[in-house]
Specification:
The radius of gyration is 20 Å and the shape is elongated. The chain contains two helices and no strands. Helix 1 runs antiparallel to helix 2. The protein has 78 residues and is an all-alpha fold. The protein starts with 12 loop residues before the first helix and ends in a 5-residue tail after the last helix. It has one domain.
Length: 78
């Protein structure tokens, strides 16, 4: 008797594709959050408080986490 115990992935191809999109959105959020510091510690750089670092980047990270949750909960058979 031949036993066909092929390893099966937990998620389908669609789930992994959505997960990669979510990881890319999270990475983009962290990239947008980076920087803004000053080379001289005695000089204040107001660019650290611009809208990109305060609003856009954290929103992208949260959206990316939502995409990850959707990818985990999505039905792989669709």
């Amino acid at each position: 008797m031949k036993d066909d115990n092929k390893p099966q992935f937990l998620f389908g191809k669609r789930n992994y594709t959505i997960m990669l999109i979510g990881i890319a959105v999270i990475a983009l959020g962290f990239i947008l959050m980076a920087g803004g510091g000053s080379d001289d510690p005695k000089v204040f750089n107001p660019d650290i408080y611009n809208w990109q670092r305060i609003r856009l980047a954290p929103a992208l990270v949260i959206i990316g986490l939502g995409i990850q949750i959707y990818a985990i909960l999505a039905d792989p058979k669709k």
